[in-house]
Amino acid sequence: MTIEVSTPDAGAVDEVLGALRAWQDDAAPMQLHPGDVGWFWRFGARATAAALRTWRRDGRILAVGLLDGPGLLRLAIAPESLQDGELARRLADDASRPERGVLTDGEASVEAPVGALVDDRLRACGWGSDEPWTLLACDLAAPVAGRVARVETVGAEHAPVWATVLRTSFDGSTFTAERWLTMAAGPAYAGARSLVAYDDQGDAVAAVALWSAGPGRPGLIEPMGVHRDHRGRGHGTAITRAALDALRELGASSALVCAPSSNVGAVATYESAGFRRLGERRDRRRGTADPRVAT
């Protein structure tokens, strides 16, 4: 059967999230997680649906893409289809041809699972390698060791505090309480929590969102930030450990996170919280920009 690409409407996003949950496995490569879609939901249901692409054969979803910015396609592939030659050719062809409605012409990047055949196909089509990202995981079979921050689970009443901490954690961030409320109303947030950490003086110093893919499956931490006025005091490590505890309570088998390898401070923070490195991943790049959407 021919593989077809399409953009789901808002009513079909639950099916897409179901596929992404089913593909999360500790033995599989790290790839687009339902929490990534949940985090994107801060822009609203219509924008999220418009940013998604599905590749199907005989009605069955084989791959999901999220346009996480104007020129970045982030892919998840059914584990049994990672080496599917027809799918790899179609994904690479669709990413390379603007008229297919996936990526526009010019600078663009594709993030694919490590070892997926589509990476080889993109390279054969002339796509180069982008900057490395460090992949990390933490086994949640046992309780997390070390100091855990004094945290509150964020509800609507704490959304302004969470938004302020996140906005002061990332240069150029425009995140607002309204965006948190929009995100929390999305279907992926049913298996998620947002936490805010406080120091001994009662100041909000760090924020994190964590996303479950269901019991026995890897969860995701995205994003985690420390207020720029409170860095260097262990708050990032502490709130990450609190997030790991929360994911364990939700039944996650492990926690996943990735960070630019050039951001050595972020990688060190995750390692100090209990993560181990899984290696690096490089996007396939056409042009020079990494057009990830702003926080």
Strand content: 25-35%
How far is the N terminus from the C terminus? 39 Å
- Multimer state: single chain
Counting DSSP H or I runs of 4 or more residues, the number of helices is 9
The 3D shape can be described as globular
- Which class of the largest domain in CATH terms? Alpha Beta
Helix/strand-derived category reads: alpha+beta
CATH architecture of the largest domain: 3-Layer(aba) Sandwich
Number of domain modules: 2
H/E element string? EHHHEEEHEHEEHHEEEHEHE
Mean pLDDT: 95
**Low-confidence regions:** none
Total number of beta strands:
12
Strand order of the largest sheet: 1-2-3-4-5-12-6-11-10-9-8-7
Largest sheet geometry: 12 strands, mixed
CATH superfamily of the largest domain: Gcn5-related N-acetyltransferase (GNAT)
The CATH topology of the largest domain is given as Aminopeptidase
Radius of gyration: 19 Å
The percent range for helix content is 25-40%
Describe the protein.
The structure is a single chain. The chain is an alpha+beta fold. The protein has 2 domains: 3-132 and 282-286, Gcn5-related N-acetyltransferase (GNAT) (Aminopeptidase), CATH 3.40.630.30; 138-280, Aminopeptidase (3-Layer(aba) Sandwich). Helices cover 29% and strands 29% of the residues. It has 9 helices and 12 strands. It has helices at 13-23, 34-40, 45-51, 85-96, 117-124, 159-167, 177-184, 235-249, 264-273; strands spanning 3-6, 52-57, 60-67, 72-77, 108-111, 128-139, 150-153, 192-198, 204-211, 218-226, 254-260, 276-286. Strands 1-2-3-4-5-12-6-11-10-9-8-7 form a 12-stranded mixed beta sheet, with helices on both faces. β9 (204-211) and β10 form a beta hairpin. The longest helix has 15 residues, at 235-249.
